[in-house]
Amino acid sequence: MNRKSKTTAADETDAPHHEIVSSAHLVSPRSKELSEFEFGLIVSNNAFSRWIVHCMSAAGLRELTPLDVLVLHHVNHRARDKRLSDICFIMNVEDTHLINYSLKKLQGLGVVASSRNGKDVTYATTELGRKHVERYREIRENCLINALKADDALNQQIGELARLLRVLSGVYDQAARAAASL
Question: Which residue intervals define the domain HTH marR-type in the entry (predicted)?
């Protein structure tokens, strides 16, 4: 006779924890949680990339890569002209060719313009670029922010997670430098 047992909250917390990871061979007994974090980062990065591409497409700019979308937003940030090196630094991208390629693509679409400021070349969004960014913001509010339904507690958790991501990005950068020197 099969009987279904009733499980309680206490039973669930006593149950063995099975990590959700992408690469079980990388799980360290010193920090299984880091492998879980990395899997979460992979999945969330892919979802975020898909989201920003679809949102910008809905705003009228199709066929952009996630990096193109992020570069456009950063160039538009605070309505200040940006140098290539500054964009790379803020976005934590070492390969300037990637950012330069995005800038050229965005210039070709007429949403970013370059100008000379002494020896420096700077980039700014055009009126058309600002219109697409504003439309993106409207779509983001309607589709993402409304779906999130964040209250003060959730917003506080999101802020704490953002802080933790910045801390961990520093740890990953330091580890990358150490690995590069091996």
Answer: 64-129
